[in-house]
Amino acid sequence: MDLQLTGKTAVVTASSKGLGKATALQFAYEGANVLISSRNEKELQATVEEIKEQTNNDKVAYVICDMTNPTDIQNMVEQAAAQTGTIDILVNNAGGPPSGKFLDFSDEDWQQAFELNLLSFIRTIREVVPFMKKQQSGRIVNIASSSIKASLDNLILSNTMRPGIVGLAKSLSQELAPDNILINTVGPGRIETGRIVELNKKTAESKGVSLEQVKEEADKEIHLSRLGEPDEFAKAVVFLASGANTYITGQSLLVDGGLVKAL
């Protein structure tokens, strides 16, 4: 299948590591011009070099961007557009909010989660849409969480903010369809990243059990009986963001190995 990504410009946010990095890597393999971002320049530099080395694609660049800072977001999009004059693809990603229960969080905590996990997506989409409208084509994929389908224990901030991304995408899929701009949301289940390790450690501490025991019990809940690999998740994102996707928009997809039982 030809994904029609050669020479396309893709912006992948929060991509110096984890799922964002895996997604950027897949775009580079397909010959896209890729701009990655995060707040950590040292990690960004290392990731750019790693992607270039693995893919033999030298059209990979980075920009420092705090996704809660609207000026940073505007600058990121401007730098991406400067590469080829437009932006074809946006993959919205951001680090997950902290774990905890309702009474653990202050107004400030709620505001930070809103700005990082919902408002940042809104701001970035707002910056790229004019480029896509001008060329009458574009793909937007929002990376969320499996909490868009089923709530997760001890993750009330995620359970609240992530479904907002789905509502945003569903509404925009209707508004942007006349301009051939497709927008979808992809929720990872338990993919083997630093985020999962962090959450498993907290679970182990709270239950007073070993990290290995937590992992074994979690794997049993997944129909495929294992954690997903970052590249397995990334390939789904890249397909939805590609020219091969011509008729899927406004949808929410879980890449979870069958973990979530909700319809």
Protein described:
This protein has about 260 residues and is an alpha/beta fold. The protein folds into 2 domains: about 10-190 and about 230-255, Rossmann fold, CATH 3.40.50; about 190-225, no CATH class. Helix content is about 50%, strand content about 15%. The radius of gyration is 18 Å and the shape is globular. It holds the Pfam family adh_short_C2. InterPro entries: NAD(P)-bd_dom_sf, SDR, SDR_fam. Belongs to the short-chain dehydrogenases/reductases (SDR) family. One of its GO terms (molecular function) is oxidoreductase activity.
Radius of gyration: 18 Å
Helix content: 40-55%
**Residue runs with pLDDT of under 50 for 5 or more positions:** none
The strands making up the biggest β-sheet line up spatially as 3-2-1-4-5-6-7
The CATH homologous superfamily of the largest domain corresponds to NAD(P)-binding Rossmann-like Domain
Beta content? 5-15%
Q: H/E series, N to C?
A: EHEHEHEHEHEHHHE
How many structural domains can be distinguished in the coordinates?
2
- Which topology of the largest domain does CATH recognise? Rossmann fold
* Shape field: globular
What's the CATH class of the largest domain, please? Answer: Alpha Beta
Number of helices: 8
Largest sheet: 7 strands, parallel
Provide the residue-averaged pLDDT.
Answer: 96
Total number of beta strands: 7
Return the CATH architecture of the largest domain.
3-Layer(aba) Sandwich
Keywords: Oxidoreductase
Protein name: 3-oxoacyl-[acyl-carrier protein] reductase
Pfam families: adh_short_C2 (PF13561)
GO molecular function: oxidoreductase activity
